[in-house]
Amino acid sequence: MNLLSASPQPFWAFDFYWSQIIQFSIIMAILLLANVLRRKVLWLKASLLPVAVIGGFLGLLIKYLFNGSPISIANLMIEETSLFNVDTLSSFTYHAIAIGFGALTLKGIDQMNQGPMRKKPLAVKSGMVIVNSYLIQGIFGLIVTSILTFFFVNIPNYAGFLLPMGYGQGPGQALNVGDIFQRLDFVYGRDFGLSIASIGFLAASLGGVIYLRKLKNKGLLKTVEDTSMESKEESTILEGNGQIPLVDAVDKLTIQVAILFFIYGLSWFFIYVLEQLMRQSGVDFLIRNLIPLLYGFNFIIVVFAALLYKVITRKLIQSKIMKRIYTNDFLLNRIAGLAFDIMMIASIMAIDITLVGDLGFLVTLLVLVIGGGLITYFYLGYLTKIVYPSYPHEAWLVFYGTMTGTASTGIALLREKDPYFETPAANDIVYGSSMAIPLGFPLLLFVGVVSQGWVSLLIVLVILSLIFTVYHLILSKSKKKQNLQ
Question: How many CB atoms lie within 10 A of CB 469?
Answer without folding.
Answer: 12
